[in-house]
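Write out the 3D structure for:
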Amino acid sequence: MCSSCCYSCLKAIVFIVNFLVMLVGMFVTGVAMWLLVSEHLFLSSSWEHFSLGSLALLTVGLLVSLLAFLGCCGAITRSKCLLGMFVISLLVLLVGEVAV
C-alpha cells in the first residue's frame, strides 16, 4: 500500500517539476522570438543576418520545452518509451556538458 502512495507522489513530483521547466522553456522561446523579431524590425537587418545569441536562445528554449514535454507525458501515461527517451536525452545533455 505504501509503495503505491510513494509511486503516486513521485509521479506527481516528476510531472510538476517538468511542467514548470516546460513553462520556463516556453518563456525563453518567447523571449528569443521577440528578440529575433525586434532585431529584424528595429535594426532593419535582413533575415539572413541574425545574431547568434538569439538563435542559440531559441534553440535552447525549444530543446528544454521538448524534453520537459517528454517528461510530463511520460509521467502521466506511465510510458516506458517516453520516460526512456527523456532519461537518455538528459544523459546525452549531461555528457555533452561534461565534454565541453
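The mean pLDDT is 85.
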